[in-house]
Amino acid sequence: MLIYALQRLALSVVIVAVALSILTLMLHVAPGDPAVMILGPRATPELIAQTRVEMGLDRPLAVQILTFFGNIAQGDLGRDVFTGREVSTIVFEQLPYTLALIAISIAWSGALGIALGAFSALRRNSWLDTLTGVLSVGTISIPAFVMALYAVLVFAVWLRWLPAIGAGEGLWDGLVHLALPSFAMGISWVGYVARMVRASMLEVMGRPHVRMARAFGLPERRIARSHVLRIAVLPAVTLIGTGAAHLFSAAVFVEVIFARPGVGALLVSAVNERNYPIVLGAVLVTTGIIVLATLVSDLVVAWLDPRQREAL
Amino acid sequence: MTDFTPAARSGLGRRTFLKGAGLGLAAASMPLGARIWAQTGKVLRVSSYADIDALDPGFYQNGYNVDVMNCIYSKLVRYTPGREWDWELEAAEEIEQVDDTHIRFKLRPGIMFTGGYGEMTAEDVKFSFERVIEHDSPVKSDWGPLDHVEVTGKYEGVIVLKEPFQPLWTIALPYGAGHIVSKAAVMEATEAGGDFGMEPPCFSGPYVLKEWRPNQFVHLTRNPEWTGEAPGFDEIRILPMDDTKTAERAYEAGDLDFTEITLSSLAQYRGNAPRDTTIEEYPSLYYVWLGMNLDNPALGDENLRKAIQHAINVEQILGAAYFGEAAPATGLIAPGLPGHREAPLVPVNGDLEKAREYLEAAGGPPSQPLTLDALNATVWKTMAEVIQAQLAQIGIPVQINVQDSGSFWTLGMESEGERWKDMQLVLNRFSMLPDPYYATSWFVTEQVGVWNWERFSSPEFDDLHQQALSETDPETRGELYVRMQDLMERSGAYKFITHEGAPVMYRAGLEPGLRPDARPLFIDFAPGA
Questions:
Q1: Model ipTM?
Q2: In this complex, do A41 and B214 lie within 8 Å of one another by their Cβ atoms?
Q3: Who's near B61: CB < 8 A, 6+ residues apart?
Q4: Tens of pLDDT, residues A76-102
C-alpha cells in the first residue's frame, strides 16, 4: 500500500504539471494584456511596454512556462501584479476559507446523506423512503448558487437569524458565518450521497454473506452496520473525494454571493484581470489539493475494503 | 453648470483671491468633546465594489483606493460633499491662483504624520506632487504640466506649472495624486521615494489603517494625532463586494449601513424600501456610448454610420437595460460639468426615416453582419440585443460578441495585435472625474490605437482639447467642449447613450457625505443625533 501511495503521489505531480502547462497556454492565447490591466487607462504605451518586459511577457511562451516551473521548484510563486505581494501569501491567506467551506459542506452533507441513504434502504418502499427520494432528487436539481440566494433571502434578510456576508472573526463567529454558505454548497450533495448509499446498500443486502449472517441469527442492526453499510459506503467515499473538485467550482459562486474570502473568488477576479501570477499560483494549489483529495479517498477506500488492500 | 476654479467661485476677480480658513480653522481649534458628531463606539459599515490594491496616492489606479486614501491622508483641498461640485480647504489654510501657472499655498500648522514623522510641511507637499512625475507614475497625467513645487517657507509653497491647467482644481488637488505623504517616511520605506504599494509608512488623515484583511475588510480607526475636524465615526469597516446585488442583500440583512444600489433594484426599493432606510438618487459621471471603428472597411461610408446613429432609439435601450431608471446622454459630459450639451445633434430617439435615407445613400446594408462587441454583463448584453433589433429594423444585420473584461478592455488596442482591425461596433463605458478634459482626453489623435477605439482623428478636436485645458473663462471652456462633442457626433462614429445613475440607500439617521456623483467621502459620514 505504501508503494501504491508513492506511485499515486508521483502521478499527482505529473497531473499538476500538465494542468498548469495547459492553463498557461490558455492564458496566453486568450486576448487581454496584463500590463494594461495593472497600469490602468492613463499609462503611456511606453510604460506598458516596459511593464511587459518586467513581467517577462516579451519572452517566448516556452521560456515563460519553464521559468514558472523553475521558480515553483524553488518555492517562488511570483508576485501579485497589482499589490506586489507574494502570490503564495495571497493564495494561502485565502485558501483556509475555501477549505473550511468545502470541509464543512462535505462533512455535514456526507454524514446526512449516508444516514438518509441507509435509512431509505432499510425502510425500502415506505413513505419515508419515497419522501427521501423526492427530496434527494429535488436538492440535486437545484444549483448551488440558486440555493445560496434563497438561503440568504430567507435566513439572513427575512428571518435575520444568520449573517448574509463575510467570514466572521474567531471560531464561533466563523462557524456562524459558514452556516449558510455550507448549507448552499452541501445541500445537493446530500441527495447524491443518499441515492448512492441507498442503491449500494440494496445491492449489498442481497449478497450471500448477508444472508449467511441472518442465518446465524445476528441482529439486523448489527448486520446493517457491520456487514452492509461498511461495504455500501465505499462508493460514497469515492464520490465525496472526487466531489472536492466540483465543490471548488461551486465555491466560486458561493464566495461571491456571500462576499466571503476564498480561492474561488480570488481566481475569478484574477482571470478577469489577467493577473497571471495569481491565476497560476491559485490553480497550482487547488489542483494539488484536488489530486491529493482523490488520492486520500482512494486510500480510505482501500483501508475500508480488505480486498482492495490485498490487491495493492 | 458648475465651475469651481477659485476665480469663478470667489467673485473677487479672475486671478487673485484669498481663501480663508474660516470655519475650518475654528473647528480645528475646538476640543474633541465639543464636536457634536463624534460619538464613542460608533462603527460605520459600508461596502466597496472592489478590494484595495494600492495605498500610495502617487500611484493610485482606481476610485476604491482613493476612498480609503481620503480617510488616511490629507490633501491641500478636498471635494465638498453635496449636490454641486465644489471644493474646500483641508490641509491648506490658504490657497490662491497667483497667475495662470502659479498656485500659492499655505499649510495649516499642526498636521502631524503618525509614526513620529513629525509635522507636515511644504517640503512634504513638494515631495508628494513631484514624485508622481519623477517616478513616471501611470497617473502622472493627473498633474498635467506640473513643473515643480517651490518651497518658500515651512508651510508655504508655490505649485509651478509649465502651462495653464484647469483640471488642477478639479482632479489633481482634490483627488488621488493630490494626497500628501511624508517625505521622510516614504524615503525610508522605499528606494528613492517610489511606490510604497500596500504598506503606508505613516498617515496624516482623520483615520489610520488599523487592519486590512484581503477580500474581507478594511478597518479604519480614528487617528489619535489628528488635529483637524473630528470625523463622525470612531471606526469604519469597508467590505469589498464586487457584486452590488450582494451589497443590497447585506444591507437588507442589517450587515451594512450604507450601500450603492443597482438601477434594476431602484424601482423596487422606491416602492418598498427596507425599514428605516433612506433612498437617494444621484447622477453618475460615467458615459456609455456605441462606437464605430472608422478604419474598418465595412464602416468606411459616413452615410452608413449616420444610418446607424439615426436607427438607434436610446430611450428603448434605457427602458430595457436600465429599467427606465437612467436618462439619455447628450454627449460625453454629464450634467453639472462645463461642456454638458443640452441636446445631441442626432435625436435621442433616432429617426427611422432619416436612417433609411442614409442607408440608401450608402448603397444599402452591408453584405455581412456587423459585429457588436460588448462586455459579458447583463446590462451590456441587453443593450447590445436592443441595438441589434433596432438596426434590424432598417435591414442592418448585427452579430453580438460578448467578451470577459480581460479580453474586452484590450479590444481596440494596437499593442494587442490585429484584433482592432476586426472590431466594428463596440458598446463602451468609461469612468469619469469631474472635469471635462478627463472625457475628451481619450479621443484625441494620440489615443488612436490606445483608448480611442473608434480611431477618430480630428486636428480641430485636438486643438480644441489643448485650448480647453488652459482656458480660464468657464463659459468659453464649456463651449469648447460642446464643439468637441459636436465634432465627434458629426463623424458618425458615436451614439451617446447614457450616464447611468448612482442611487444609494442608508440607515435613517445616518448623515452620509457624498460627492455629487454619490462617491462616498467617509470622513464626512456622521451618525444622526
A1: 0.83
A2: no
A3: A39, A40, A82, B53, B54, B138, B139
A4: 888 887 888 999 999 999 999 999 999
